[in-house]
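Please complete every field before forwarding. Incomplete forms are returned to the sender.

SECTION A: IDENTIFIERS
Entry label: holo-273
Bound molecule: zinc ion
Molecule representation: SMILES string

SECTION B: INPUTS
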Amino acid sequence: MDIILTGTGSPIPDPNRAGPSTLVKAGDTHILVDAGRGVVMRMAGAGSMPMFLSGVLITHLHSDHVCALNDVITTHWVLTQGNVPLRIYGPVGIAEFVERQLHALEPDIGYRIAHHEPLTAGPNVEVTELEPGEGFEINDISITTAATEHSPVKPTIGFRLEHDGATVALVGDTIPCAGVDELAAGVDAYVQTVIRRDIVEMIPNEMLQDILDYHSGVIEAAQTAARVGAKRLVLTHLVPAPQPEQYPEWIARAAEHFDGEIVIGDDLTTVSV
Ligand SMILES: [Zn+2]
Ligand SMILES: [Zn+2]
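SECTION C: PREDICTED COMPLEX
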């Protein structure tokens, strides 16, 4: 499997980092996890397109993780002419979210159907709401889910993907919790959205201070990786976004707690497992 960081950013706009999303490729099966700002553009950079997606997995409904879902839906629809369903999986609430997106897109859907003969209906989207603990398969990838902890955001879920003996956990925004430990146990790659707690604590901004209580810091992510025996820790959703010359410092903080490989990088950084 190739794990491609299609967006390493956060709600804070950054010219070089798209919003949170990760693309997993296993052979011809492409699965997108979350759909942050600019995801379709980054997918193109990763050699993918919405029409190649076998599934979109959503961890939670925070806007930074879903704000470009409408672009995924529309681009998939236009490029497939509605002949293939786009399958979206997420926590309870995702069905209504997608329904509302489709309402917002109604003028566009009407214009395109009026103008393009091959388009006879709106986007072909199949949404599945998942309870934590539910498992399912997409082609030859088995996926398990567990509840994560990002209160007051509820429900939130993380995913573990397994293909050909390789495993990856993509858990979204969460503090360390039993669900993350379960999903990341012994994985080849544990992808965790992180903040630098030490830096955020020094920024005198009330809303930034609020993010401290519902995200994993770099150190906590490293401690989780060590506790569960993950082989690699992949850091994404970097707050505050580091400059490349600061990557060694981020890695060093994590390496104090975790002996395995630690990956941090720009958008389109790829980890193969
Ligand atoms: Zn969030
Ligand atoms: Zn987030």
